[in-house]
User: Fold this.
Amino acid sequence: MDKVVWITGANSGIGKSITLKFLRNGHKVVASARREEEIKNILNEEGVDESDLIIVPLDVTDPEKIANTYELLKEKHLFVGLINNAGATSFQNALENSISEIKNIIETNLLGSIYMIKTLLPEMVEAEGGRIINILSVVTNKIFTSSSAYSASKAGLEAYSKVLREEVRENNIRIINIYPGATITPIWPDKALEKFSSRMMNPDRIADIVYDAYSIQENIVPEEIVLRPVKGDL
Ligand SMILES: NC(=O)c1ccc[n+]([C@@H]2O[C@H](COP(=O)([O-])OP(=O)(O)OC[C@H]3O[C@@H](n4cnc5c(N)ncnc54)[C@H](OP(=O)(O)O)[C@@H]3O)[C@@H](O)[C@H]2O)c1
Assistant:
């Protein structure tokens, strides 16, 4: 059985950087996202061994599909890690945010991450070990307008995972919450990237820190890591 790390939202931005970092360090990765072709592009990147990448087209808002996918994968793989990275936002104020946008944000960022945790947790409890990393955001402790649903989704996952952490500590399961500030990825509108990218963070550096936090072998867990551009939030 191959040990694997499941990374959601693996085909773009921070998730793609994390996926490449793990692959280049010899891990086997289950890489999931909705756009399969974009996941396949990872195979063209330097230092990627095709046999280490398991490409899984998956919408995290679909708990049945997650469960069915896992049932197939678990025949040949041991899930030692989960990185809940898939995320969406809309940059709309509460008045203008449509119900479908709000639903998508909450279902992807909050419920999707919980569905993933619920799917892999029994195996980790059984194995008496595992690592779950949630890519949250600085919005959990600072007010950003035009981010109400997004902030609710990230604060919700923060609350869920803090309770979970206490419940599974004794099972040697590490819950690591990462709180990045502005990072250069396609989640931002082009105009924002044009204006601010010089002071935003590089997703590859976020991936380096995620990887270091994941890799600690001693009885230490960095439970919360806040990452900000030196010059502060936008
Ligand atoms: N960039 C920042 O400044 C920043 C700051 C703090 C936190 N974050 C967080 O970092 C994470 C990654 O975001 P990013 O900035 O790297 O944005 P991104 O480049 O837009 O990546 C978002 C990823 O999520 C996937 N995704 C979206 N909806 C999905 C769904 N329903 N099911 C499965 N996958 C889905 C996308 O793939 P598909 O579209 O193919 O599904 C894509 O891989 C998010 O959780 C975001 O909230 C970002």
About this structure: The domain at 2-227 is CATH 3.40.50.720 (Rossmann fold). The CA atoms of residues 2 and 72 lie 14 Å apart.
